[in-house]
Write a structure and sequence with these properties.
The protein is of the alpha/beta class. The protein is built from nine helices and eight strands. The structure holds 2'-deoxycytidine-5'-monophosphate. The site of 2'-deoxycytidine-5'-monophosphate has 13 residues, from helix 2, helix 4 and helix 8.
Length: about 230
């Protein structure tokens, strides 16, 4: 299952809200590895484009933005559930880039080949240093096909929508479960049918269905694979 023991490069892919980030963070913490959530980059580019009222259908302009964007990632400055601070200019956008508007538009931005190329190069450069848990949609298939361990974490759309709903409520926000479910299904569809780097498990990935597992059980299963 793993090419090296313990694996140095761990690729963790799966659909929206499948629990990849929670698993990745826990795994990285216990192994003393870097945790890198690559969705941050796609979200940050989308956030900048929305902030500047750019036309998201203008592929050339959005691609240029992805090539030039200065996205800073720092250790967390607050204990509010964040894994890191995401800073653009002098603004902390850690939570802003997880809002509904970014959620609704990020799949369009991340389907552009030029955007993917610009952001994948950054991810690959960082990933190849090793001792990393990299989380995304195409890490095992495109960004780091040489990863020592590839895990594809899946769960039903209903279960994932419920988790996202609970997360928002726990942060003190308000949410509509049916609306979240509709968006999860829509995002799955765009992410898995796009022409470039669609969401799919790598041939050599271990697929884990977390529907009937809690977070601890999923971590235990992946830790087992690391041995
Ligand atoms: O994991 P997330 O929900 O924060 O990701 C946001 C979006 O970014 C998601 O809809 C698809 C895209 N994404 C991607 O295309 N490739 C990645 N490696 C990571 C995220």
């Amino acid at each position: 299952m793993t090419k090296k023991t313990p694996p140095s490069i761990i690729a963790l892919d799966g659909p929206a809200a499948s629990g990849k980030s929670t698993l990745g963070r826990t795994l990285a913490d216990s192994l003393g590895y870097l945790f890198f959530d690559t969705g941050i980059l796609y979200r940050a580019v989308t956030w900048i484009a929305l902030e500047h009222d750019m036309n998201l259908r203008d592929e050339a302009a959005i691609t240029e933005l992805a090539q030039k964007a200065q996205i800073d990632i720092h250790p967390p400055s607050k204990a509010d559930g964040r894994a890191c601070d995401v800073v653009i200019g002098d603004r902390d956008v850690t939570w802003d880039m997880r809002d509904g508007e970014v959620d609704a538009n990020v799949s369009v931005v991340s389907a552009y080949a030029g955007v993917r190329q610009a952001l994948s190069e950054q991810q690959r450069r960082i990933g190849l240093r090793g001792r990393v848990v990299m989380v995304g949609r195409d890490i095992g298939t495109v960004v780091l096909p040489e990863a020592d361990l590839k895990v594809y974490l899946d769960a039903s759309a209903e279960e994932r929508a419920k988790r996202r709903f609970d997360e928002i409520i726990a942060r003190g926000g308000t949410a509509d479960y049916e609306e979240i479910l509709r968006k999860v299904i829509e995002r799955d569809h765009i992410d898995s049918t796009r022409a470039v780097a669609p969401l799919r498990p790598a041939d050599d990935a271990v697929i884990i269905d977390s529907d009937k597992m809690n977070a601890e059980q999923v971590v235990a299963r992946v830790m087992e694979l690391c041995k």
